[in-house]
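User: Before I run my own analysis I want an independent prediction to cross-check against. Here's the chain; please return only the C-alpha coordinates and, at the end, one sentence I can use as a sanity check.
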Amino acid sequence: MTTKRKESDDRRKRMVADPVSPVLSIAFKSKFMEINRPKSKQPIPDNAKKVFDGALFDVYQWEQEMFDGTKATFEKLKRPDTVIVFPVLDDGTILLTEQEQPGKEPFMGAAGGRVDDGEDILEAAKRELLEETGYEATDYILWDAQHPTSKIDWVVYTFIAKGLKKVADLNLDAGEKIVLKPVNLDEFIDVAVSKNFVEKEIIPKLYEAKLYPEKMEELKKLFNSKQI
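Assistant: C-alpha coordinates:
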Protein backbone atom coordinates (compact mmCIF):
# COMPACT_ATOMS: atom_id res chain seq x y z
CA MET A 1 0.00 0.00 0.00
CA THR A 2 1.38 3.39 -0.97
CA THR A 3 1.80 6.15 1.61
CA LYS A 4 -0.83 8.28 -0.17
CA ARG A 5 -3.33 5.39 -0.18
CA LYS A 6 -2.68 4.68 3.51
CA GLU A 7 -3.17 8.34 4.44
CA SER A 8 -6.46 8.35 2.53
CA ASP A 9 -7.69 5.21 4.31
CA ASP A 10 -6.64 6.58 7.70
CA ARG A 11 -8.49 9.81 6.96
CA ARG A 12 -11.65 7.90 6.13
CA LYS A 13 -11.41 5.97 9.40
CA ARG A 14 -11.04 9.22 11.38
CA MET A 15 -14.05 10.70 9.61
CA VAL A 16 -16.25 7.76 10.61
CA ALA A 17 -14.93 7.41 14.14
CA ASP A 18 -15.04 11.09 15.12
CA PRO A 19 -18.52 11.72 16.61
CA VAL A 20 -17.84 15.43 17.18
CA SER A 21 -17.23 16.15 13.49
CA PRO A 22 -20.70 15.83 11.91
CA VAL A 23 -19.67 17.82 8.85
CA LEU A 24 -16.89 15.35 8.03
CA SER A 25 -19.19 12.41 8.68
CA ILE A 26 -21.74 13.79 6.20
CA ALA A 27 -19.00 14.36 3.63
CA PHE A 28 -17.84 10.78 4.04
CA LYS A 29 -21.33 9.39 3.45
CA SER A 30 -21.92 11.35 0.28
CA LYS A 31 -18.58 10.45 -1.27
CA PHE A 32 -18.12 6.83 -0.29
CA MET A 33 -21.53 5.39 0.62
CA GLU A 34 -24.91 4.88 -0.97
CA ILE A 35 -27.37 7.74 -0.51
CA ASN A 36 -30.52 6.32 1.05
CA ARG A 37 -33.90 7.94 0.48
CA PRO A 38 -35.45 9.19 3.75
CA LYS A 39 -38.68 7.52 4.80
CA SER A 40 -41.89 9.52 4.78
CA LYS A 41 -43.75 9.98 8.07
CA GLN A 42 -46.93 9.12 6.16
CA PRO A 43 -45.93 6.71 3.39
CA ILE A 44 -48.25 5.74 0.56
CA PRO A 45 -49.46 2.22 1.45
CA ASP A 46 -49.04 -0.72 -0.90
CA ASN A 47 -52.79 -0.96 -1.48
CA ALA A 48 -53.10 2.66 -2.66
CA LYS A 49 -54.38 3.23 -6.20
CA LYS A 50 -53.11 5.87 -8.60
CA VAL A 51 -56.21 7.86 -9.57
CA PHE A 52 -54.49 10.64 -11.52
CA ASP A 53 -51.34 10.61 -13.63
CA GLY A 54 -50.15 14.18 -14.08
CA ALA A 55 -47.26 15.86 -15.86
CA LEU A 56 -45.61 16.52 -12.49
CA PHE A 57 -47.91 15.21 -9.76
CA ASP A 58 -49.61 11.83 -9.45
CA VAL A 59 -52.49 11.31 -7.01
CA TYR A 60 -52.87 8.16 -4.90
CA GLN A 61 -55.94 7.19 -2.84
CA TRP A 62 -56.65 4.45 -0.32
CA GLU A 63 -59.21 3.46 2.29
CA GLN A 64 -57.95 4.26 5.78
CA GLU A 65 -59.53 2.81 8.91
CA MET A 66 -60.32 5.45 11.52
CA PHE A 67 -60.11 5.14 15.32
CA ASP A 68 -63.86 4.36 15.62
CA GLY A 69 -63.73 1.58 13.01
CA THR A 70 -65.16 3.60 10.14
CA LYS A 71 -63.23 4.11 6.93
CA ALA A 72 -62.32 7.24 5.02
CA THR A 73 -60.61 7.91 1.70
CA PHE A 74 -57.08 9.24 2.17
CA GLU A 75 -54.98 10.62 -0.65
CA LYS A 76 -51.46 11.78 -1.23
CA LEU A 77 -49.49 13.33 -4.08
CA LYS A 78 -46.29 11.92 -5.52
CA ARG A 79 -43.73 13.72 -7.68
CA PRO A 80 -40.09 13.28 -8.78
CA ASP A 81 -37.47 14.02 -6.14
CA THR A 82 -35.37 17.19 -6.33
CA VAL A 83 -31.64 17.88 -6.03
CA ILE A 84 -30.23 21.30 -5.21
CA VAL A 85 -26.53 22.20 -5.23
CA PHE A 86 -24.62 25.06 -3.61
CA PRO A 87 -21.28 25.35 -5.44
CA VAL A 88 -18.28 26.77 -3.53
CA LEU A 89 -15.37 28.19 -5.53
CA ASP A 90 -11.76 27.75 -4.41
CA ASP A 91 -11.74 31.28 -2.92
CA GLY A 92 -14.80 30.49 -0.77
CA THR A 93 -17.33 32.25 -2.99
CA ILE A 94 -20.75 30.58 -3.07
CA LEU A 95 -22.61 30.60 -6.38
CA LEU A 96 -26.33 31.32 -6.04
CA THR A 97 -28.75 31.59 -8.93
CA GLU A 98 -31.15 34.40 -9.75
CA GLN A 99 -33.89 32.75 -11.76
CA GLU A 100 -36.98 33.49 -13.81
CA GLN A 101 -39.57 30.91 -14.85
CA PRO A 102 -42.83 31.39 -16.74
CA GLY A 103 -45.72 32.34 -14.46
CA LYS A 104 -43.50 32.92 -11.39
CA GLU A 105 -41.93 35.95 -9.81
CA PRO A 106 -38.11 36.08 -10.01
CA PHE A 107 -36.43 34.22 -7.17
CA MET A 108 -33.06 33.38 -5.66
CA GLY A 109 -31.88 29.87 -4.97
CA ALA A 110 -29.36 27.18 -5.78
CA ALA A 111 -28.68 25.20 -8.92
CA GLY A 112 -30.98 22.22 -9.07
CA GLY A 113 -34.02 20.49 -10.46
CA ARG A 114 -35.89 17.23 -10.78
CA VAL A 115 -34.27 13.81 -10.62
CA ASP A 116 -35.00 11.98 -13.88
CA ASP A 117 -36.73 8.61 -13.78
CA GLY A 118 -34.15 5.95 -12.80
CA GLU A 119 -31.38 8.52 -12.34
CA ASP A 120 -28.92 8.20 -9.45
CA ILE A 121 -29.25 11.03 -6.91
CA LEU A 122 -25.60 12.10 -7.05
CA GLU A 123 -25.55 11.89 -10.84
CA ALA A 124 -28.62 14.14 -10.92
CA ALA A 125 -26.81 16.68 -8.73
CA LYS A 126 -23.80 16.61 -11.07
CA ARG A 127 -26.03 17.07 -14.12
CA GLU A 128 -27.96 20.00 -12.64
CA LEU A 129 -24.75 21.71 -11.52
CA LEU A 130 -23.30 21.43 -15.01
CA GLU A 131 -26.46 22.54 -16.81
CA GLU A 132 -27.23 25.55 -14.60
CA THR A 133 -23.72 26.79 -13.79
CA GLY A 134 -21.35 25.28 -16.36
CA TYR A 135 -19.19 23.84 -13.54
CA GLU A 136 -18.11 20.35 -12.62
CA ALA A 137 -17.02 19.45 -9.07
CA THR A 138 -14.70 16.85 -7.59
CA ASP A 139 -16.39 16.70 -4.18
CA TYR A 140 -20.04 16.60 -3.13
CA ILE A 141 -21.29 16.88 0.43
CA LEU A 142 -24.84 15.79 1.21
CA TRP A 143 -25.98 18.56 3.53
CA ASP A 144 -29.64 17.65 3.93
CA ALA A 145 -32.29 15.21 2.68
CA GLN A 146 -35.93 15.49 3.72
CA HIS A 147 -39.60 15.28 2.79
CA PRO A 148 -40.66 18.96 2.86
CA THR A 149 -44.30 17.99 3.49
CA SER A 150 -46.09 14.82 4.61
CA LYS A 151 -48.79 15.28 1.95
CA ILE A 152 -46.40 14.76 -0.97
CA ASP A 153 -44.11 11.78 -1.53
CA TRP A 154 -41.14 13.95 -2.50
CA VAL A 155 -37.58 14.25 -1.18
CA VAL A 156 -35.30 17.26 -1.59
CA TYR A 157 -31.57 16.45 -1.47
CA THR A 158 -29.27 19.41 -0.76
CA PHE A 159 -25.60 19.18 -1.75
CA ILE A 160 -22.55 21.40 -1.38
CA ALA A 161 -20.10 21.06 -4.26
CA LYS A 162 -16.37 21.82 -4.02
CA GLY A 163 -13.33 21.46 -6.26
CA LEU A 164 -15.07 23.36 -9.05
CA LYS A 165 -13.91 23.72 -12.63
CA LYS A 166 -15.66 25.75 -15.33
CA VAL A 167 -16.11 23.45 -18.33
CA ALA A 168 -19.13 24.74 -20.27
CA ASP A 169 -21.68 27.46 -20.79
CA LEU A 170 -25.09 27.22 -19.15
CA ASN A 171 -27.42 24.72 -20.85
CA LEU A 172 -30.90 25.81 -19.76
CA ASP A 173 -34.40 24.55 -20.43
CA ALA A 174 -36.77 26.69 -22.48
CA GLY A 175 -38.55 27.76 -19.30
CA GLU A 176 -35.43 28.94 -17.45
CA LYS A 177 -33.50 32.17 -17.22
CA ILE A 178 -30.56 32.02 -14.81
CA VAL A 179 -27.92 34.52 -13.77
CA LEU A 180 -25.18 33.35 -11.40
CA LYS A 181 -24.79 35.47 -8.26
CA PRO A 182 -21.48 35.05 -6.37
CA VAL A 183 -21.75 35.76 -2.62
CA ASN A 184 -19.71 35.22 0.53
CA LEU A 185 -21.07 33.23 3.47
CA ASP A 186 -22.52 36.24 5.31
CA GLU A 187 -24.24 37.44 2.13
CA PHE A 188 -25.54 33.93 1.51
CA ILE A 189 -27.20 33.84 4.92
CA ASP A 190 -28.74 37.29 4.40
CA VAL A 191 -30.12 36.29 0.99
CA ALA A 192 -31.40 32.95 2.27
CA VAL A 193 -33.53 34.47 5.01
CA SER A 194 -35.15 36.91 2.57
CA LYS A 195 -38.65 36.30 1.20
CA ASN A 196 -37.71 35.40 -2.38
CA PHE A 197 -35.25 32.61 -1.52
CA VAL A 198 -36.85 29.30 -2.53
CA GLU A 199 -34.67 26.67 -0.86
CA LYS A 200 -36.79 26.64 2.29
CA GLU A 201 -35.46 23.31 3.56
CA ILE A 202 -32.12 24.75 4.69
CA ILE A 203 -33.36 28.04 6.17
CA PRO A 204 -33.73 26.62 9.73
CA LYS A 205 -30.06 25.59 9.62
CA LEU A 206 -29.06 29.16 8.75
CA TYR A 207 -31.16 30.66 11.53
CA GLU A 208 -29.49 28.23 13.95
CA ALA A 209 -26.11 29.47 12.73
CA LYS A 210 -27.16 33.07 13.37
CA LEU A 211 -28.29 32.20 16.90
CA TYR A 212 -25.65 29.73 18.08
CA PRO A 213 -21.88 30.27 17.64
CA GLU A 214 -21.15 26.54 17.51
CA LYS A 215 -23.60 26.14 14.63
CA MET A 216 -21.98 29.05 12.82
CA GLU A 217 -18.58 27.34 13.16
CA GLU A 218 -20.05 24.15 11.70
CA LEU A 219 -21.49 26.14 8.81
CA LYS A 220 -18.16 27.83 8.14
CA LYS A 221 -16.41 24.45 8.03
CA LEU A 222 -19.11 23.08 5.73
CA PHE A 223 -18.64 25.93 3.22
CA ASN A 224 -14.87 26.08 3.57
CA SER A 225 -13.55 25.32 0.10
CA LYS A 226 -10.47 23.61 1.57
CA GLN A 227 -12.43 21.32 3.93
CA ILE A 228 -13.75 18.06 2.47
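Sanity check: The first strand starts at residue 49 and ends at 53.
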